[in-house]
Amino acid sequence: MTLEQLKETVEQMSEKDLFRFLKKSICRSLAEVNDAASDANDTLDIVYFECQRRGKERLYDKTLETVSNNPDICVAA
Prior knowledge:
75% helix
């Protein structure tokens, strides 16, 4: 899936699905932080912009804070 296709998909997600995808995207970004070939950060940017477009920046910030403070959440996801 291209980043443009991902953007379109994310735009169509329900808020609940967006939250789930956000959590997975943050976990993936943390896991692939040292992988220069990874597009995880681009994906996370797309999710952030969608949260911003919907006025849900707080959802993004809170999820990032929660996962950063408890990375074991990613193992359970």
